[in-house]
TrEMBL record:
Name of one Pfam family that matches: Acetyltransf_1
GO MF annotation terms: acyltransferase activity
UniProt key word Transferase: yes
Protein keywords: Acyltransferase, Transferase
InterPro entries associated with the record: Acyl_CoA_acyltransferase, Bact_Acetyltransf, GNAT_dom
Native source species: Sulfitobacter sediminis
Protein name: GNAT family N-acetyltransferase
UniProt entry tagged with the keyword Acyltransferase: yes
Annotated PANTHER family: AMINOALKYLPHOSPHONATE N-ACETYLTRANSFERASE-RELATED, AMINOALKYLPHOSPHONATE N-ACETYLTRANSFERASE-RELATED-RELATED
Phylogenetic placement of the source organism: Bacteria, Pseudomonadati, Pseudomonadota, Alphaproteobacteria, Rhodobacterales
EC id: 2.3.1.-
Length: 164
């Protein structure tokens, strides 16, 4: 599926569609994850602020997939990855991850970082296939077990490997 990526600012007329896509993709996950996703409290105003502080990207018109990229000192954080159910398994999530890598390189960030809930093993497989590795497991307040996994992808060449 060939869809050009589109960047959205805080005043983008497509922001409500991104907001709806994120909510529709994350809401069903609450039956699988504990604690429930914080996306339930994501307002349109908060999404606009996130787009202003970082970068909101989508694929398709109307949006079929989207992600929010947030620059940090040593990485670019990928959040709110959402792909419409009808567009899943068509490579859109991989395209968003590749776009994030392009943006990280353009912003001179040495790594990509993202988080996923422990229960979402199909997402973990997608991230590993894209070159991410698990770096940490964290626990939400009030839980006695890990609830989230941090994945990272280094964009700096590994100088310890021999080229012979």
């Amino acid at each position: 599926m060939e869809l050009a990526p589109r960047r959205h600012g805080a005043d983008s007329p497509d922001l409500p569609a991104l907001h709806a896509l994120i909510h529709s993709c994350f809401a069903p996950l609450n039956a699988r994850i504990d604690p429930p996703s914080s996306v339930a409290s994501l307002s349109l105003e908060r999404l606009a602020a996130d787009a202003e502080a970082g970068e909101a990207w989508s694929l398709g018109e109307p949006p079929l997939a989207c992600a929010i990229l947030t620059p940090a000192p040593n990485h670019l954080y990928i959040g709110k990855i959402a792909v419409a159910p009808a567009a899943r398994r068509s490579g859109l999530a991989q395209r968003l991850l590749a776009l994030a890598e392009e943006r990280a390189r353009a912003l001179d960030k040495p790594a990509l970082l993202l988080q996923s809930r422990v229960e979402l093993t199909e997402n973990h497989a997608l991230f590993r296939k894209a070159g991410f590795r698990e770096t940490e497991r964290t626990t939400h307040e009030g839980f006695d077990r890990p609830t989230s996994i941090t994945f990272a992808k280094s964009l700096v060449p590994d100088m310890t490997k021999s080229s012979d």
